[in-house]
Amino acid sequence: MDDQRCIYVSDNEKQEVRRYRMEGDTKSGDLLAGGHGKGSGLNQINAPLFIFVDQQHAVYVSDHLNHRVTKWNKNATVGIVVAGGQGKGVALTQLSHPEGLFVDESSTLYVAESRNHRVTRWPQGATQGTAIIGVDTQINWPVGLSFDRQGNIYVAESGQNGPHRIQRFFIQ
After folding, report:
1. What pTM did the predictor assign?
2. Per-residue model confidence (pLDDT) at position 5
3. CB 51 within 8 A of CB 101
């Protein structure tokens, strides 16, 4: 829920993200991202598994099967690719099945890549990320991210063929 008492919902079946206000008509919600069917166009998404809403109410969408993260500014009709978008792969310009997202106060994006078994960091405007977890540390299918006030990042792992767990890491 945001500071205006709105709830954001990612609908994997309809390939869209909507915002529902707690007051007034909550049946249809406001379309914020996608809504034009499954696809790879900048007005489309394909499996929006995770979302993040920043302080300016921009919505970041983990576009799982397009292997990218898109940012949808307020009142936008198309998304902006802010991570990946170069097809599925292991290069630092690519993502493989992005899931959990987090954007910090400096607009740096953190992405859990489940199939690359890593977490990448994308400063605002970057054309490639930096692998910050999963290089020297073994993680297994990371799906969720969270930070605490001390700068620790918590990574939830789905454990496809391994343990389901949450690990804590300190990053700089």
Report:
1. 0.93
2. 87
3. yes
